[in-house]
Amino acid sequence: MSDQIKTAIVTGGARGIGAAISKRLAKDGYAVAVVDRDEAFCADTVGTIQSAGGKAVAVGADVATEDAVATAVDRIATEFGTPTVLVNNAGITRDNLLFKMTVEDWDSVLSVHLRGSFLMARAVQKHMIDAGWGRIVNLSSTSALGNRGQANYSAAKAGMQGFTKTLAIELGKFGVTANAIAPGFIETEMTAATAERVGMSFEDFKAAAASRIPVNRVGNPDDIAHLASFFASEEAGFISGQVVYAAGGPAIG
Question: Where are the transmembrane segments (predicted)?
């Protein structure tokens, strides 16, 4: 990889896991395009990176909208540098039991996770192929193995794994790898919202989760950022099409 080819895109980069990955890639020397639905949401992440001496830019885009993705990627490539790392992290939850789940709940979750990742990967891959080097990191979840109240999210995260393996097959000959990270319980705003939905305090919710995890703690966004950093590295070039469950122990559906 040329020293000049150092631009990364992180979707859903405004907070949580996406923010941690953005900051870690900036620490690794990448210029980071922090993408989120509202550009203003990215200000804290971008500001933190810049304050630490890194390079980052906020980009507002709905990853599930084709034109918005094309415009965002073209802007990043033109103004910020050829993107050769893509982290598809953007995601939402609309949890409910199957008989209560609406078509809108189903469609919105599948759209952001799967359609969004497809559109981003399709837009960015041409830049990677031209550069002869690229890294795609997709965020799956242990919910891909099944999780009560998450038929939509589980289907989306399982789909991310098949999508990742297919990208690895299609893009490998161009010097592009694709891997997926499947986090277990990570302490974020999203898991806090889940605790609220089930009527538990977040501290009790985390303690209950930690009691079921072999390492006896829940994860934090930096745990996932470290793994994303490895997958994005030069040294990870012989690892592609893999799904790593970062869950503090064996993943159990």
Answer: none
Tell me the HSE value of 216 on the side-chain side, using a 13 A CA sphere. Answer: 0
Residues 176 and 194 reside in one and the same domain: no
The answer for 56, left when phi > 0, alpha when psi is -120 to 50, beta otherwise, is beta
106, 118, 153, 163: which one is catalytic? 153
pLDDT tens track for 174-225: 999 999 999 999 999 889 988 998 899 999 999 999 999 999 999 999 999 9
Answer yes or no: 30 catalytic. Answer: no
The answer to whether position 140 is within a domain reads: yes
Number of domains in the chain: 2
Contact status, residue 238 vs residue 176, Cβ threshold 8 Å: no
Q: Whole-prediction pTM value?
A: 0.96
Question: Can you give the residue range of the structural domain that contains 202?
Answer: 188-218
